[in-house]
Design goal:
Elements: H1 20-34, E1 40-46, E2 53-60, H2 79-96, E3 106-107, E4 110-111, H3 112-116, H4 133-138, H5 140-149, H6 164-177, H7 182-192
Length: about 210
């Protein structure tokens, strides 16, 4: 299959009505989009106390194969939100310096930074090491090690595209290399935020058949 890039068009000028924060963030995101480092994005910054919208930016394209413009009303799969919790959990672990992992840690033939930026080169929706749906839900440690041994489909750092499956497995493997787990990293983040009832990121035992 041939990978297609969105058509390169000149972006419209920044709106003078944008807030200073929105203008700074949009300029930053546009520069990454122009360099091919971001396919498309929606970014909203809210005031946690007043609930006011401090910045609201939408730009880029929704897909490599069907590059529709991203707008404020563009809908994305709700599953995309869960990636943020996992990514922040792992980054907090890296920033704390309490383990043996860093952004340069190699997993799956790419660095942890590549994995977090969706440029690891692992693109297959169902990686070859996943043999059944039940296995996908119930054997995270083994699958994480399999993902680590699986080479990238394309050279890492060249294309922003990824698989939900390998993304989670590679981050789980990075945590394992650092002497922890995604559950522990997630629980630490929830505790630091003062949020009760931390939810496990691991499927329950005896998951779907």
């Amino acid at each position: 299959a041939r990978l297609l890039s969105p058509p390169r068009t000149s972006p419209p000028p920044l709106s003078p009505s944008l807030s200073p924060l929105s203008r700074r963030l949009e300029s930053l995101l546009r520069s990454h989009h122009a360099a091919g480092q971001i396919l498309g994005a929606q970014l909203v910054v809210l005031d946690a106390v007043r609930g006011a919208t401090l910045a609201d930016v939408s730009l880029g394209h929704t897909s490599w194969l069907e590059p529709h413009a991203v707008e404020a009303s563009t809908r994305f799969h709700v599953g995309e939100i869960s990636k943020l919790l996992l990514a922040v959990s792992v980054l907090r672990h890296v920033e704390a310096g309490s383990g043996a992992i860093g952004l340069g840690t190699v997993v799956g033939g790419a660095t942890l930074e590549h994995v977090l930026s969706h440029t690891s080169g692992h693109l297959l929706a169902i990686p070859p090491y996943v043999r059944s749906f039940g296995e996908l839900c119930a054997e995270l440690p083994r699958l994480a090690r399999c993902a680590d041994a699986d080479p990238p489909l394309v050279r890492c750092g060249t294309l922003q595209a990824y698989s939900h499956v390998s993304y989670g497995h590679l981050l789980a493997r990075a945590c394992e290399l650092g002497g922890t787990s995604v559950d522990e990293a997630h629980d630490d983040m929830m505790a630091a935020a003062g949020l009760p009832g931390a939810v496990s990121l691991r499927a329950p035992a005896g998951g779907p058949p």
